[in-house]
Amino acid sequence: WLAASLVLYTLALLTKETAIVLVLIVAASLWLDFPVPLGPATRGFARKVWRILKNLRPFLTITGAYLIVRVAVLNGFSHPAAEISWFTVLLTWPSLLVFYLRLLVWPVGLSPFYGLQFVTFPSLTNTMLPLSLLALIGLGLWKWASVSRPAALAITWMICPILPVLNVQVFGNGNFAHNRYLYLPCAGFAMLVALVLRRIGITAQNLAAISSVQIGVTVGLALMLMLAIDVEDRYYATDIAFYSYAYSRMGHKDEVIGMDYANALAEQGDFGRAAELYRKLIQAQPEMWRSEER
Questions:
Q1: pLDDT category, 14, cuts 50, 70, 90?
Q2: Are 170 and 178 in contact (CB under 8 A)?
Q3: Of 153 and 40, more confident
Q4: Are 100 and 181 within 8 A, CB to CB?
Q5: Quick one: pLDDT at residue 36?
């Protein structure tokens, strides 16, 4: 199983660099004694850390080799797409994290792009209020994790995968928030929801060792999600619907999305609308030679 895990981890790294967070998740699992305790010999902080590092050695070796190759090939781990300071990055985090939490709890109004902007100056609405909300939620999660190992592991799964994409420097302004960044955090959030559901209707009549109330609530949630999927996926029916909706959602009319929308119109034979959009793109960004070429 270890060999299979290492092979899959290597393939995941070669697919997307964010897979590197698996090391953190494995480390957290070992710290929480999942799936089984490490043993009496690991009692004590230093001994436990040393034992965890020994177990992580194969993963750390692969991670180190990957980082060396990546830096050599790309001449650096990553290259910023936006010339912003780390102060701006930090100011952007609160509103971005609250945005992702909202999508986890209430995934309505989904879009391929959201047009969130970098926060360059702190204010009550874009910094202080989101930061206060995150502090309250963080305190609640910390207390929950301190009394429940499954909750602690679920919180790890929810937080770790989102860490790499918090480096918003590597994205363009308005292009750093996407649904796909929540695919893995959804697993941790689903585990937390399951833990809550297991506490509902414990004394109710059981069906196959599961509370009938729990079954009813779970079926209700599943039906709600099915309905939400049916509503939200209409924008993914065709390229025209996809890019039209995405372009309309971008308040500052992102030129890259506009180019994709114009290309989709041209491919569908709607040359008039495509040409009009190309002209707007050229006026907004004269250096976009692809628009002139089209």
A1: very high
A2: no
A3: 153
A4: yes
A5: 60
Q: What are phi and psi of 37, to 5 degrees?
A: -60, 150
What token pair was written down for 278?
A: 């190309």
200 HSE (CA, 13 A, CB side): 12
Structure tokens at 231: 């509503």
Please check whether residue 111 is in contact with residue 175, taking contact to mean a CB–CB distance below 8 angstroms: no
- Rounded distance between C-alpha atoms, residue 9 and residue 2, angstroms: 10
Q: What pTM was computed for the model?
A: 0.81
| Element containing residue 30 per DSSP (H, E) | helix 22-31
Q: Tell me the C-alpha distance between 65 and 73, whole Å.
A: 12
Question: Rounded CA gap, 18 and 164, in Å?
Answer: 6
CA 61 from chain centre, in angstroms, equals 26
Which residues are within 8 A (CB) of 174 and not within 5 positions of it... i.e. 6 or more apart?
113, 114, 115, 116, 117, 250, 251, 252, 254
- Mark 182-221 as b/e (b = at least 16 C-beta within 10 Å): bebbbebbebbbeeebeeebeeeeeeeeebebbbebbeee
Residue pointed to by tokens 């729990």: 214
- Give the relative orientation of helices 255-267 and 239-249 as an angle to the nearest 10 degrees: 150
The C-alpha atoms of residue 160 and residue 19 are separated, in whole angstroms, by 10
> What value does the mean pLDDT take over residues 67-91?
88
Query: What's the rounded Cα separation, in Å, for the pair 115 and 136?
Result: 27
Residue 179 CB contacts under 8 Å (≥ 6 apart), including other chains: 103, 110, 111, 112
Residue 54 near residue 41 (C-beta atoms within 8 A):
no
- With CA atoms as reference, report the closest residue to 162 among 138, 187, 143: 187
pLDDT digits (tens, 9 = 90+) for 255-271: 777 888 888 888 888 88
